[in-house]
Design goal:
Structural class: mainly beta
Number of strands: 10
Shape: elongated
Distance between the termini: 4 Å
Radius of gyration: 13 Å
CATH class: Mainly Beta
Largest sheet: 6 strands, antiparallel, barrel
CATH architecture: Sandwich
Strand order of the largest sheet: 1-2-5-6-9-10
Strand content: 35-45%
Number of helices: 0
Order of helices and strands: EEEEEEEEEE
Helix content: under 10%
């Protein structure tokens, strides 16, 4: 299923500080400038999130569809992986009616 701007990621990260490790919840803030899914920008490989880690509040998609592209970048689907830079996460929300590679 297709991931869009404002869809959510969940992950886990640690910087080896005494306050670590952290559950991380993120939201996509950057997407395609010209491809929309349900009136929201489509998310592609290397699009960014902001998230709840107090040390590094950004993440980025690092996996996507092997055969569906948006602006020459792999299209991000539900369960695709996000680097939280201090850890790893996945995309957990998506369009309810648009599918990519049976996801």
């Amino acid at each position: 299923m297709s991931v869009r701007i404002t869809d959510i990621t969940v992950g886990y990260g640690s910087h080896a500080f005494p306050c670590c490790s952290h559950l991380i919840v993120g939201i996509f803030i950057i997407g395609s400038p010209d491809t929309f899914i349900n009136k929201r920008r489509a998310i592609r490989l290397w699009d960014f999130t902001i998230h709840t880690c107090p040390h590094c509040p950004v993440g980025m998609t690092i996996t996507g569809s092997h055969d569906t592209f948006v602006n020459l970048r792999k299209k991000t689907r539900i369960w695709d992986i996000v680097t939280e830079f201090c850890g790893i996460g996945i995309c957990v929300t998506k369009s309810p009616n648009t599918h990519t590679n049976n996801r």
